[in-house]
Design a protein that fits this description.
The two termini are 14 Å apart. The protein has 17 helices and 20 strands. It has two domains: 272 residues, Glycogen Phosphorylase B (Rossmann fold, 3-Layer(aba) Sandwich); 182 residues, 3-Layer(aba) Sandwich (Rossmann fold). 36% of the residues lie in helices and 20% in strands. A hairpin with a 2-residue loop joins strand 6 and strand 7. By secondary structure, it is an alpha/beta fold. The structure holds adenosine-5'-diphosphate (ADP).
Length: 484
């Protein structure tokens, strides 16, 4: 099969979060399974062109957007790790993508994001034509690609280039919907009849996410539990009805972890390599991490966090429980960028307990690896978590996850049972500071028992979340749709 895979961010070209990791790994696995994949992404200003082999193709597509024909300059790059025939198409547009940020800057989201991603969604389809890649499947990700789906099913419905194509749309986080003013219908150049509650309209706005959900042949999300959760009022962010109606075409496939990048045995960004068979390097990673954050180098348990500083990542709980956690015999190390209120609250915590709290308010991939390797425990108290990747990385690094039992956190971590010794981490069910503190205390108690802790670490490191199994599920879905 030929698969056109569209994402607004793709590792190694661009990244703000987990979507980029997924888009950098899943297509490679699908290609390795014998399919031809073209990954389409914007050529953001931040792309390291020389470092990732980006070259101008000399081809241009003209993309109808906001009543104009907007040129998209097509660049190509290898899809590293994939067999020949699969590659990356990067869509260049000085007007829309030659900017410092991917979605915004310090002042917030770019005000023309509706137009930027209306352009991108349609440019993906036009670029496929320009490079002569006729897909069997178009697979888009998140609201930034949503408008491609009504275009595919309406604008291009009778276009022989796309005849027989099937459409898959993946929701990585239903909290981000791409909601814009009704006038956006004109920007999209879609007919006003689609401004309707069973199509793009959502409470007086145009919803890019809903466009993807409604017009795709199948909707996937990134863990089995999240696929169930988003059909409920609590987690559906208003789209639960649409998803419930489509429930026989909504699937949850757990994301994989890319162990070529996230494995302590081979990771070049950490102080010392180690593996389940030889753990001696982990102590060196811990000392290196403590030094990097200016903390005393000692054997106290280190609790790590790498996360966007956002409400849904559980920083409300950290704001309430942080002081209590920092008063326990441990160190807390946090790496993250995001909301000002959480930056302030974490800075205040660090000022109060400089010997126990390490903080870096940056986006730093190397430091993220150091935290995975050097921490003893990894904290993910997300209010909701579609999949989450860091809990899977943590397991591989023998860094025991403490998680709120939701979405992919619940699917990937098994709660530790002190009686049987089974389990791979610590879960708490209620989204409340005391529940979080209780889980931290349980973890720190087990940490004191060296034999039990070592056995727990071994079990965690034996977990396998490689992409191969997930990729197989996507391929099976593509095949089912293709045959239907
Ligand atoms: P989300 O996509 O919701 O942000 P995920 O857990 O799925 O959350 O993925 C987050 C990814 O981004 C992980 O690879 C994590 O290591 C990385 N990440 C998040 N914040 C930072 C940061 N400040 N510096 C470096 N990497 C980060």
């Amino acid at each position: 099969m030929r698969i056109l895979y569209a994402s607004p961010e793709v590792v190694p070209f661009s990244k703000t979060g987990g979507l980029a990791d997924v888009a950098g790994s899943l297509p490679v696995e699908i290609a390795r399974a014998g399919h031809q994949v073209v990954v389409a992404a914007p050529l953001h200003q931040t792309v390291d062109r020389a470092g990732s082999g980006v070259a101008a193709s000399g081809k241009t597509a003209l993309v109808p957007v906001a009543g104009r024909m907007e040129p998209a300059e097509i660049f190509e790059a290898p899809l590293a790790g994939a067999p020949a025939g699969s590659y990356v198409v990067l869509i260049g547009s000085p007007r829309y993508f030659d900017r410092k940020g991917i979605y915004g800057d310090a002042g917030g989201d770019y005000p023309d994001n509706a137009e930027r991603f209306a352009f991108f969604s349609r440019a993906v389809l036009e670029a496929a034509k320009a490079v002569g890649f006729r897909p069997d499947i178009v697979h888009g990700n998140d609201w930034q690609t949503g408008p491609a789906f009504p275009h595919l099913k309406r604008t291009y419905a009778f276009d022989p280039f796309f005849s027989g194509v099937r459409a898959v749309f993946t929701i990585h986080n239903i909290g981000y919907q791409g909601l814009f003013d009704p006038g956006t219908m004109e920007t999209l150049m879609l007919p006003w009849e689609l401004y309707h509650y069973q199509a793009l309209e959502f409470w007086g706005k145009v919803s890019f996410l809903k466009a993807g959900i409604v017009f795709a042949d199948a909707v996937t999300t990134v863990s089995p539990r999240y696929a169930r959760e988003i059909r409920t009022e609590e987690f559906g962010c208003g789209l639960q009805g649409v998803l419930e109606e489509k429930r026989d075409r909504v699937f949850g496939f757990l994301n994989g972890a890319d162990y070529t990048k996230w494995d302590p045995a081979t990771d070049r960004l950490i102080a010392k390599n180690y593996s389940a068979a030889n753990m001696s390097g982990k102590a060196g990673c811990k000392a290196d991490l403590q030094a990097a954050f200016g903390l005393p180098v000692s054997d106290v348990p280190v609790i790590g966090m790498v996360s966007r500083l956002a409400d849904h990542k559980g920083f409300g709980l950290i704001a309430d429980a942080g002081a209590k956690i920092a008063s326990l015999r441990c160190q807390l190390v946090v790496l993250g960028i995001g909301d000002r209120k959480y930056r302030d609250c974490l800075s205040a915590l660090k000022d109060k307990r400089p010997d126990q709290v390490g903080l870096s308010l940056t986006f730093d991939d190397a430091l993220a690896h150091k935290i995975e390797a050097g921490s003893d425990v990894f904290l993910m108290p997300s209010r909701y978590e579609p999949c989450g990747l860091n809990q899977m990385y943590s397991l591989r690094y023998g860094t025991i996850p403490i998680v709120h039992a939701v979405g992919g956190l619940d699917d990937a971590v098994e709660d530790y049972d002190p009686k049987t010794g089974n389990g791979t981490g610590f879960k708490f069910g209620e989204y409340a500071p005391d529940a979080l503190i209780g889980a931290v205390k349980r973890a720190l108690n087990v940490y004191r028992n060296k034999t039990a802790w070592e056995a727990l670490v071994k079990r965690a490191m034996a977990c396998d979340f490689s992409w191969t199994a997930s990729a197989r599920k996507y391929v099976e879905l593509y095949e089912r749709l293709h045959k239907a």
